[in-house]
Specification:
Layout (H helix, E strand, L loop, with lengths): L2 H9 L7 H13 L2 H11 L5 H14 L4 H9 L7 H18 L5 H8 L4 H10 L13 H9 L7 H15 L3 H8 L7 H10 L1 H5 L2
Helix pairs in contact: 1-3, 2-4, 3-4, 4-5, 4-6, 6-8, 8-10, 9-10, 9-11, 10-11, 10-12
């Protein structure tokens, strides 16, 4: 079998989790040049085996900081994948891009993805960077993280809004006043926004 077929076969052994899928991607990237790795990823994206598409997404995430085309494939193609597990790996791939680029340097791309039309693209950011204030730059600038996340509170996607609420709740554990002050300015008559607020303040509320 060829490399693509081997990876598809290997991926089928993963029923839950993603550890071996990530390992397979890492091994491929370590063993060949970026263009060859990207070609394998593109072939894997054509299969109906979601685990293989997860490997492809991990590969592209490893390449994205040095290959703008890989980053665009993540944004424009992977975000349209119908499988939720692939979307979870997209979030990890975007965080890998930010880590390799540097979170502050990646801010223009973070903002670009957060302004994308497709909610999956935006969720890759809100979910991928959790816990936001555990990441360099955002650790020192929690207000920037809160502002970026809060701008997504009225999204039409419940999937995205849930991610936003959970990410804000993460931040509230160390910065409760910052999150509380932000939410005080929201229009809670919007049911979706109110749900985000409830998620975001769950830890604060539990502490009385």
């Amino acid at each position: 079998m060829g490399v693509v077929e081997d990876l598809i076969s290997r991926s089928r052994n993963t029923a839950h989790g993603f550890t071996d899928l990530q390992a397979a991607a890492d091994e491929l990237v370590a063993g060949c040049d970026g263009q060859a790795a990207k070609a394998v990823a593109l072939d894997l994206l054509c299969t109906d085996v979601h685990q293989a598409r997860c490997i492809a997404t991990f590969i592209l995430g490893r390449l994205a900081a040095s290959d703008p085309d890989a980053l665009q494939i993540l944004k424009q193609r992977i975000s349209l994948d119908p499988d939720w597990r692939v979307q979870e790996i997209l979030a990890k791939a975007f965080d890998r891009f930010c880590q390799d680029t540097g979170y502050e340097k990646a801010l223009p791309v973070i903002r670009e993805w957060l302004s994308a039309d497709h909610p999956n693209t935006r969720r890759a950011v809100t979910e991928g960077l959790r816990i936001w204030t555990g990441r360099p730059y955002f650790r020192e600038h929690p207000g920037v993280a809160v502002a970026l996340l809060s701008a997504q509170r009225s999204s039409e996607s419940d999937y995205l809004r849930k991610s936003v609420g959970n990410a804000l709740r993460d931040i509230s554990k160390k910065h409760p006043d910052l999150v509380r002050e932000e939410i005080e300015g929201w229009d809670l008559t919007h049911s979706g926004v109110a749900k985000v607020a409830r998620l975001a303040t769950r830890f604060i509320a539990s502490k009385g």
